[in-house]
């Protein structure tokens, strides 16, 4: 159930109020052990980017340059892979390799 709600909120980009509320609920669900920290990280980044802020985990891709995905700016790019590991997300290079265009 939490996963389905996350998926809807994650893609409600034109409804930032819905995303913000979902973020609060996801934080509670992760704390209660019924939602994944990974999903919370993706939603947190999405909300930050939609609010015009830098993301934390590097999950949101701004576009493709020279065949390689380019993330939206991150708060601490040097710590990104460590933060990703803490919530169960693969390293950034492995993540974007899925999207690379050769």
Q: What is the compact description of this entry?
A:
The chain is mainly alpha-helical. It has helices at residues 2-10, 16-32, 37-50, 80-86, 92-97, and strands spanning 61-65, 68-71.
What does the secondary structure layout of this molecule look like, with pairings?
Layout (H helix, E strand, L loop, with lengths): L1 H9 L5 H17 L4 H14 L10 E5 L2 E4 L8 H7 L5 H6 L5
Antiparallel strand pairs: 1-2
Helix pairs in contact: 1-2, 1-3, 2-3
Pfam families: DUF6624
InterPro entries: DUF6624 (IPR046732)
List keywords for this structure.
mainly alpha; globular; two-stranded antiparallel ribbon; 102 residues; 9% strand
Report on this model:
The structure is a single chain. This protein has 102 residues and is mainly alpha-helical. It has one domain (2-97). It has helices spanning 2-10, 16-32, 37-50, 80-86, 92-97; strands at 61-65, 68-71. Strands 1-2 form a two-stranded antiparallel sheet. Helix 2 packs antiparallel against helix 3 (37-50). The chain starts with a helix and ends in a 5-residue tail after the last helix.
Order of helices and strands: HHHEEHH
Structural class by sheet pairing and helices: mainly alpha
Cα-to-Cα separation, first versus last residue:
37 Å
Roughly what fraction of the amino acids lie in strands?
5-15%
Radius of gyration: 14 Å
Q: How many distinct domains?
A: 1
Q: State the total count of DSSP E strands.
A: 2
What characterizes the major β-sheet?
Answer: 2 strands, antiparallel
Number of contiguous helices: 5
* Uncertain residue ranges: none
Average residue pLDDT: 85
Helix content: 40-55%
């Amino acid at each position: 159930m939490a996963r389905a709600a996350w998926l809807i909120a994650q893609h409600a980009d034109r409804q930032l109020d819905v995303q913000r509320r979902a973020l609060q609920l996801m934080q509670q669900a992760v704390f209660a052990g019924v939602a994944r920290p990974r999903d919370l990280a993706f939603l947190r980044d999405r909300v930050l980017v939609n609010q015009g802020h830098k993301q934390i985990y590097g999950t949101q891709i701004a576009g493709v340059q020279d065949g390689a995905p380019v993330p939206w700016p991150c708060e601490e790019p040097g710590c990104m892979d460590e933060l990703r590991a803490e919530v169960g997300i693969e390293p950034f290079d492995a993540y974007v390799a899925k999207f690379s265009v050769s």
